[in-house]
């Protein structure tokens, strides 16, 4: 028996003792899908500078080529989110066809209402009706693009806000936000969803029109069942209990998806799980708990969550950074699948605080390496996707693109 086979046999024995069935765990791991963002393959930067890397895609087509590498090596990233107009092309069916030829598809469509000079004082909540009209038309254009390429989800983030007390009429802007979102909602096909993001600050520093999950939740409730909340893990104040928000939204059947990234201070957009893997694990704990809820609506909500990465930093190589994010998501999901939920519930009923906390943490402390190696073998992907990428010649091949690719 090889070292890996022996490690897996021991792992299996240990998990059996803990009451965990590995066939079920593996089936769930095989079903996990993580969408990567087109903008994570482009050049990015800080508030101060965009750094140009050699080999970065020059257009949306090349971004899909890089994203397809991530899918080929992990087997769990079959779709790619697009951002319009960053990924503007003349013919979206051509992009869709290109994606299909590469073995991936177009995922969530993200309207971009923070790029143009006209939006300096806001887009859908601008006090100028002509600018609000332009912004709403862009939302409608994105609904059309989503219909053309067969995307179910539109992810919405608005930079709209203000920097100074008195600068704007906050309540009027709330009404304008709802007005634009309502127009967009009416344009959706029945299978489509609007996933409404929020962020507590940046680029606006005094107030942001959709500053927290409650404001997004309120909008989604007013709009109807096809509108849900998108939790970007980097969009909260320090110390916020993100998994609590997740549990709350799941229970309300209003959690539509995630933008995963890691943060230390603000909206850092760093590699997922780099600073806070336990938070990611605890988010999955809440999702898996809801997936077994007595309420079919809650179960369905947990089932339909869109797992998306929103990670894009300036100092790492793009494709390896994306691989690291995806692998970190997979690792934390694998660990959460090792929670013995009966044990947790039993301890909760007995109000045994230490036993409950131990039952959750124990799963986190398992080394899932043997499990992931066996899984990847069954899935026909490299045992170590990062190593396989670094040993391949894809990274050197793309250098022929030169510097000066697409940013964000
Ligand atoms: C905003 O900070 C955000 O999280 C939104 O999802 C954007 O669409 C994305 O980043 C890219 O800038
Ligand atoms: Mn985001
Ligand atoms: Mn963000």
Automatic annotation (TrEMBL):
Residues 90-269 form the Xylose isomerase-like TIM barrel domain. Its EC number is 5.3.1.5. One of its GO terms (molecular function) is L-rhamnose isomerase activity. The keyword Metal-binding applies. The keyword Transport does not apply. Signal peptide: none annotated. It holds the Pfam family AP_endonuc_2. GO terms for biological process: L-lyxose metabolic process; rhamnose catabolic process. It is an enzyme of class 5 (isomerase). Keywords: Isomerase, Manganese, Metal-binding. NCBIfam families: RhaI_grampos. This is Xylose isomerase. It comes from Paenibacillus solanacearum.
